[in-house]
Amino acid sequence: MTAIKTNPRQSLTVVDNRTGKTYELPIKDNSVLATDIKNIKAQPQDERPENETSQGLRVFDPAYMNTAVIQSKITYINGQDGILRYRGYPIQDLVHKSNFLETAYLLIYGELPTSSQSSTWESEIMHHTYIHSDIEGMFKSFRYDSHPMSMLTSAFATLGAFAPEANPSLQGQKLFTKAASGDLEALQSLDKQILRIIGKAPTLAAASYRMRQGRPFNRPAQGLSYTGNFLYLLDHLSGHEYKPHPVLEKALDALFIIHADHEVNCSTATVLQVGSSLVDPYSVMAAGCSALYGPSHGGASESAIRMLMEIGSPENVPAFMQKVEKRERVLVGFGHRVYKNVDPRSTAIRELAEEVFKVTGRNKLLDTALTLAQYARESEFMRSRNLYPNVDFYSGLIYQAMGFPLDFYPVLFAVPRCVGWLAHWRQQMLTPSGVKIWRPRQLYLGHGEREYVEAEKRKEKPDAAIFDAPVQVQHGGDSKRNNLATYRDERGSVTKAKL
Ligand SMILES: CC(C)(COP(=O)(O)OP(=O)(O)OC[C@H]1O[C@@H](n2cnc3c(N)ncnc32)[C@H](O)[C@@H]1OP(=O)(O)O)[C@@H](O)C(=O)NCCC(=O)NCCS
Q1: 79-300+418-429: what CATH class?
Q2: 300 pocket-lining for ligand 1 (C-beta < 6 Å)
Q3: Of 186, 217, 228, 476, which one has the fewest beta carbons inside 10 Å?
Q4: Is residue 302 within 6 Å of ligand 1 at its C-beta?
Q5: What spans are recorded as compositionally biased (Basic and acidic residues) (predicted)?
Q6: Residue range 420-462, pLDDT digits in tens
C-alpha cells in the first residue's frame, strides 16, 4: 500500500497559553511575518506596563540572529554548505571568468551585460572617475596621519554636497522612489548616482592614500581598466604610459569581485537602515563605510595582519592559541555569522595568493598564518564552535605582499563593497510598495515612570556600579605644569587641577 502524500498546509499553529487562543500564522518562503505575531495579544498579568502586552507579542532578536529584513534577488549565501552566489552565479565562476565591472553590472541590474551594454557601462563608469578639485581640499584639511577610512568616510559625505540635485532633502523625498513606478527622470537620476559613486570611489580612496604618503593627487588615467586606473591613481609618480603589473591588476580585480557583495552583512544592513530614511546616496555610502570600518567587519583583515605580526613566527602559535582557547584573545580572521563551514571566498583567495606571491615574493607571515590555520583546524575549541578561516584571514596577506599599508586594507574592501551597497540601495528605492522607514522595536527594561527630584534632594546611590556615573577621564593635552597650577574655573572658584 502506498501512502497518499498530501501537501501540508503552509502555516504555523500557535497556542497562546496565556489566553488559550489559537492562531494560524501563514508561512511564506519559509518565514512568518513578525506583524502576524503582533496580532497575538493578551491582557497584562501583574506585569510592567512597559511590556505593552495588550498591544501584541513582540519578536526579540538582538543582533538579528534570525530576522529577515528584506526580500532580495541579489546575493544568496548558504552558510552550512559554503555557497555564495551573485544573482545565481557561483562566486568561483565569477572570479575565474568575469571581471569586476561586469560583476558590478550583474549585481546591480540582475543580468550579465551584453558586449554593447558592457562597453557603455565601462565607459560611463570611467567617465565618472573625476572628482571636483575642491574635494581635494577636503583631503588636505586632514591631519597627515589620519586613518584613510576616516578620510574615505568623510569624502563620501562631502561628495553629497557637490550633488544637491541628487538630494531628496532638497529636491523632494520621492526623488528616487518615484523610479519604482517607471518615472524615467527619477531612474536616470538614480542610475547617474550609481555611476558617479562607482567611478569616484577609487579616486577618493587613492586620494586618502596619497594624502598619507604626502604625494600630490593623480588625475584618473585614460585607457586603463578599473583596477589598473586605481593602481595608477595610487602609485604613479612620473614618466609616461604607466602600466601596472598585469598579475597585480588582475588579482586586485578578482579581490574586488570577491568583496563586492555579501547580502545583508553589517554595513549593507546599515546602508539599508540609513537609506530607508530616504537620505541622499552619498550619506548612505558614508554610513556604509562607518559600519565597514569596525574590526568585527571590514577592519578584520588589518587586525588579522597585526595579530600575525604580534605572533611573529610559527613557533609562537601554540602559546597564542592557548590564549584564544582561554578566551583571552579573539582569533581574528576566523569565524563568521553565516558561514559555519568553509568561507567560499577564502578558498578563491588562497588561489589568488599563490599567483600574487609568484610576482611579489612570498609573504613572510605566510608560514605563521598556515601554522595558525593548521593549529585552528585541530583545536577542539575552534572545531566545536565551527570557526574556520574567513575572507579576511587571507586577503590581508595578499594586500601586504602587494605593499599596501595596513590601514589601507579596509579601504580596499570599501571600494568594491560600494557596488553591493548600491545594488541593495537601488533594490530598496525600487520597492514597488514604496520604502518604509526602518524602525526596530525594543524591550524596555528601565525604570517605570519616576517623579523628578530637585538637585538638593538627590543622593548618590550607595550600591552604584562603576558604570552608573561618568568615570574620571585623563586630559591628554594637559601638561604636568598645567596640572600643578591653580586657576579660576567658569564659576569663578579657585581650583587646583588633579594629576
Ligand atoms: C565574525 C564574528 C563577529 C561572528 O560573530 P558571531 O556570529 O556573533 O559569533 P559568536 O560571537 O556568537 O561566536 C560563537 C562562539 O565562538 C567564539 N568565537 C567566535 N569567533 C571567534 C574568534 N574569531 N576567535 C575566538 N573565538 C571566537 C565566541 O567567543 C563564541 O564562543 P562561546 O559560544 O563559547 O561564547 C566573530 O566570529 C569574530 O569576531 N571573528 C573575528 C573577527 C573577524 O574575522 N571578522 C571578519 C568577519 S568576515
Answers
A1: mainly alpha
A2: yes
A3: 476
A4: no
A5: 477-493
A6: 999 999 999 999 999 999 999 999 999 999 999 999 999 999 9
Q: How far is CA 466 from CA 446, 455, 460, 462, 471, in A?
A: 18, 21, 12, 12, 7
What CA–CA distance (Å, rounded) separates 259 from 253? 10
User: Does the beta carbon of 337 lie inside 6 Å of ligand 1?
Assistant: yes
Burial class of residue 277, CB neighbours in 10 A (0-12, 13-18, 19+): middle
3-state DSSP percent of the chain in helix, strand and coil, to 5: 50, 5, 40
Mutate to test the pocket of ligand 1, among 84, 263, 296 (most ligand atoms within 8 A of CB): 296
**Burial class (CB within 10 angstroms; exposed 0-12, middle 13-18, buried 19+) of 327:** exposed
- Give CATH for domain 308-398: 1.10.230.10
Q: Which amino acid is at 36?
A: D
Spatial distance between the Cα atoms of 195 and 202, rounded to a whole number of angstroms? 12
Partners of 22 in the beta sheet? 15
475 backbone dihedrals φ, ψ, rounded to 5°: -95, 100
Residue owning grid cell 589601507: 408
Instruction: State the Cα–Cα distance between residues 267 and 191, nearest whole angstrom.
Output: 21
pLDDT value, residue 362: 87
Quick: pLDDT tens for 231-260: 999 999 998 899 999 999 999 999 999 999
Q: Which three cell numbers stand for residue 18?
A: 496565556
Q: Locate CATH 1.10.580.10 in the chain.
A: 79-300+418-429
Assigned C-alpha cell, 366:
605566510
Ligand 1 centre and the CA of 337: distance in Å? 7
State how far the Cα of 347 lies from the Cα of 214, in Å rounded to an integer: 36
